Amino acid sequence: MEFEQIVMSRYACKKFDGKKVPQEKMQKLFECIRFSPSSANTQPWKIKVISDKETKEKLSPVSWNQPQITTCSHLLVFCADTDFEGHLQKMQKVMQGEGISEENIGTYTKMVQGMIDKMPKNQDRLAWAQRQVYLALESAVLGAKALGFDSCPMEGFDSAKYSQILKLPKNIVPSALCPIGYAADVPRKKIRLEEKDVFF
Prior knowledge:
By secondary structure, the protein is α+β, with helices and mostly antiparallel strands. It has helices spanning 3-9, 23-34, 53-59, 67-71, 84-97, 102-117, 122-146, 159-166, and strands at 45-50, 74-81, 150-151, 172-181. The protein has one domain (3-83, 123-185): NADH Oxidase, CATH 3.40.109.10. Helix 2 crosses helix 7 (122-146) and helix 5 runs antiparallel to helix 6 (102-117).
């Protein structure tokens, strides 16, 4: 499928048929998401993957009982991770394992640490991390369509209640949802602003 076709045919599926997406396709989707861009390659996100019926049913009431939650194959909970220092340490180890020179690792570390130092407040960190999360979310919705199934990016849920139900640590903040699976509804016509209202 050509990229233009993926973009134009993707839509926010409101109801799925409950059929499971094969694990091999899920792994391909995970790779699409894992290689998403992020500022300075910091990747400040964690994605909770939920496929069991019981957990999805627990989350449904705090997702305004939207049918996507209980009918999807997998529910991806995109979380912002405000532990920037921990991510930096992990990236340093990955870079070392890839044979990156200590000089380049040092340069990268200095740059990222400078970014971190400018965001001392937790709210600043969260807002910045959430902006990065949406890059990964875009990879999920386009990747799903490219792999032959559907998705629905969502903000309609209670983040605090998700944290409680999923028993997430304080630094992992649910920021967006992406149920995926096979559509059981019909897409509506795409309506967007005119080109002149977007580009100037």
